[in-house]
Amino acid sequence: MALLRVDFYSEYLKRNVVLTAVIPVDKMDGDKRAKKRRGPYRTVYLLHGLFGQDVDWIDKTHVVETAEARDVALIMPSGEDGLYLNKPEINEWHGKFISEELITITRQLFPLSAKREDTALAGISIGAYTALINGMLRPDRFGSIIMLSGAFMRDRILDAVDSHSPRKRKYYERFFGDLDTVIGTEKDYVALAERFESEPDLPKPNFYVACGLHDNLCENNREVVKLLRDTGFDVTYWEPGIGGHEWPFWNAWIDCALDWFAPGEMRPTTAGGDYTALTSLRAPGKPIPMTGEDPSNL
């Protein structure tokens, strides 16, 4: 694998941006170098969480080893506040940067597959919300969307709109812009999901969703899974009985998500809990329930 740090000027963001790329150009086999791999490679674009950075994935998970076993390229942009959303009212186009410019630039730089079925957009926490929004805005580019412990913010935005607290409203406007313009627009995943019902010719991305039962966002994730299934999307949902809103959970379940996207060798987890033992329950079709409510019946 080749690990690269890339710095380039973004036309959409009007500044230089950085990303980390992991490209499976070769593979070490003991003391010998295996035959070089040439691509085009299946690709996962990984989005971090709130106030994170691109190298979080390198520092806090072993996703590189898992991707290497599958010949999958990883592209990790640095999102600063964790959201890549368009804010046309202030001429900011972070969403278009992710779904258009980043895809174009990385495919020019590296031998990445241009097929939508070979391209996934993934995120944790608020990055999962961002992956959901941008993935549904560009289903022609992203064939798969991976969401781990998603912080799906629609209801919080509605609460902030109705709140009498200027501080609460101002906090959310920092990320979403004018809150009165969010519901029913491209920042609203309910509206985006329903668009696929009114436009049946749109290609539908497949979803992989996982959230631990002890995560305070668990119910929120169940609601989004139900929304997606009700509007005709194929959703693989896992709700393990261990794991909270934490990197040990994401370390293990990004492995499981990559195994769903590009089946291959599973690596033993370095997390404190034995998450990967749960993946032995994999089966065709809808996953069996792990704990709590039966996700297949949501």
TrEMBL record:
GO molecular function: acyltransferase activity, transferring groups other than amino-acyl groups
Source organism superkingdom: Bacteria
InterPro entries listed in its UniProt record: AB_hydrolase_fold, Esterase-like, Mycobacterial_A85_antigen
Pfam families: Esterase
Region forming the signal peptide: none
Name under which the protein is recorded: Acetylesterase
Organismal lineage: Bacteria, Bacillati, Actinomycetota, Coriobacteriia, Coriobacteriales
